Amino acid sequence: MPTPQLPSEVLAMMRRGVSAIVASRDADLRPSLMRAMATRVGEDGAGITVYLARSQAGQVLQDIAANGHIAVVFSEPSTHRTVQVKATRVQVRQAGASDEAAVARYLASMERELAHVYIPAPLTRAMLACRLEDLVAVSFVPEYAFDQTPGPQAGTRLPGMRA
Fold first, then answer.
1. Whose CA is closest to 114, among 151, 84, 143, 76?
2. Distance (Å, whole) CA 120 – CA 138
3. What tens-digit pLDDT sequence spans the chain (163 residues)?
4. What whole-number distance in Å separates Cα of residue 157 and Cα of residue 142?
5. Which residues of 105-117 are buried (b: 16+ CB within 10 A; e: fewer)?
6. Number of C-beta neighbours around residue 8 at 10 A
7. 3-state helix/strand/coil string of the chain
8. Which InterPro entries match (predicted)?
9. CB-based contact 113:123 (threshold 8 Å)
10. Does pTM surpass 0.90?
11. CA 86, CA 122: separation in Å to the nearest integer?
């Protein structure tokens, strides 16, 4: 099955490093979610990695391990432009030294993004403070993507993606 392609403007937003919330669900369909501490999106969007703090994201990580289902909302704070990507297969590993640059880039990007809505950098750094040894990298290929920007198009499938 070919990998669906995210629209280039969506990829650009996601790759820049915007707010990301990671969700899954348990066997009874109860949702779990946690803020990503960092993200890394490949140039073609086929590979997305979100970093979760193990010490804070226990339920989400447990649900992802149990069923492989993940949904991630990427949102630009200054415009509320939002996209949700979903997958049913993930790879989970301990973050390591090779992830350090991605985590640092994400923090710098979030400091710039949140400055647009008057959140000072020290608050952003406090919100995303984490130790590399506490981070878990969850990687996946998006299977579904939806516009979730508030407004009349919210919930519509993005072009080129499965419904």
1. 76
2. 28
3. 556 688 889 999 999 999 999 999 999 999 999 999 999 998 877 899 999 999 999 999 999 999 999 999 999 999 999 999 999 999 999 999 999 999 999 999 999 999 999 999 999 999 999 999 999 999 999 999 999 999 999 999 987 765 5
4. 13
5. bbbebbbebbeee
6. 10
7. CCCCCCCHHHHHHHHHCCEEEEEEECCCCCEEEEECCEEEECCCCCCEEEEEECCCCHHHHHHHHHHCCEEEEEECCCCCCEEEEEECCEEEEECCHHHHHHHHHHHHHHHHHHHCCCCCHHHHHHHCCCCHHHEEEEEECCCEEEECCCCCCCCCECCCCEC
8. Split_barrel_FMN-bd
9. no
10. yes
11. 31
Here the tokens at position 21 are 């919330």
Q: Which pair of structure tokens corresponds to residue 28?
A: 């009874």
Q: Which residues contact 99 (CB under 8 A, 6 or more apart)?
A: 38, 40, 49, 51, 132, 135, 137
Structure tokens at 148: 């979730």
CA max distance for the chain:
45
Per-residue b or e along 51-84, where b marks 16 or more CB atoms closer than 10 Å to that residue's CB: bbbeeebeebbebbeeeebbbbbbbbbeeebbbb
